[in-house]
Amino acid sequence: MTLLLLLLCCAVVGAVCFAAGAAYARGAGHVLGAGFVRGAGRRGPARGDGRDPDGVERATFQTLHTASLAAPPLRAGLTADTARKAVRRLRPLLGTQSLALTGLDGVLAWEGGGDHHGEQLAAQVTKAVQAGRTRSFFVDCDRADCAVRFGVVAPLTAGGRPKGALAAFGTHDSAAVARATEEVARWVSGQLELAELDRARSSLIEAEIRALRAQISPHFIYNSLAAIASFVRTDPERARELLLEFADFTRYSFRRHGEFTTLAEELNSIEQYLELVRARFGRRLQVTLQIAPEVLPVALPFLCLQPLVENAVKHGLEDSVERSLITIVAVDEGAVARVSIEDNGVGMEPGRLRRILNGEGGPTTGIGLRNVDERLRQVYGENEGLVIETAVGAGMKITLRIPKYHAGVHAHAPTGREG
Fold first, then answer.
1. Max CA-CA distance within the chain?
2. Mean pLDDT of all residues in the chain?
3. How far apart are CA 80 and CA 55, in angstroms?
4. I want to staple 55 with a disulfide (CB 3.0 to 4.6 A). Which of 44, 181, 285, 288 is the partner?
């Protein structure tokens, strides 16, 4: 992963630096290449060597700014809509007569004149993709109102697979523009690579959430319904309340949108879960919640706390005949919210816990703990996993630190009951 990002950064730097030099040349009134574009800007203040350092800085900033505007659409993948938005930004970066982005099946977007050369471009894209290298070609056109006479096609790839091409057009052959087009195509390929990584990450997180949902024990569902049924005759109102709690809990657990939720929503689901557990175990379960109101809006990965509470219930009640004490604490620590879940259950041998978190505890052992730990590290970084304190017979305390603000972490706004 580190090597991949390094290569992508190198491609960006190469494209930006070359384009910045080209932009400066255009701004200073030079001809780029052999006549693709002729600049008409004023010359900056002279220096001993004839260069204008302020002009270079301005050109570099403008190039970086333009690249930053073109990147977001490309990070969504290569479609007609994203290509149209990106090519509008990329054309000024190269300063060409026309610029096009294509997929493997045809032109997705064309900015500038000469779009009637689509068929000729498609043939050149096929050759460039098959050869895996940039191609330059003359454009045959009899129309007097068409200034396009020469083109450059650079293939686009992602994950080692061809995705399309970037094509630049002008009035004359230009080795400089051919090179610049190739560098910008590498940068575009880098953005497409990142888009695929984003999709893979999202798919992985979705798969992990599905795995967690699958782990909502059928025994828990059966026992909850059995507990509800036991109140139908003796306490119908209590049975009704429990049935609503069960419906809300399952609705939240199986919702189909959003990788993230708020601490308030997660805690609400936990209270519903615990209410169903109390219906079965009664006074054997004692829960203490100490929640700072200011951390309730903090966003965190969906189904991040509920598996940890379920783990506390399992080791505190189902594996013991004693009264189970569970304490849930959420406090404000400046830039982070610290959440801890502690039980007085049977605990665990630390070596076994390490094996579980490393995925060596068996196919169905500790899936909830490992899943939450891995997702926290994926979202917040390798150092932000679960901190677990335990020993045999000493219960277990699980602590996690959730950054209040983190790039890409935004909770889905609740819209009431979800069907």
1. 98
2. 76
3. 35
4. 44
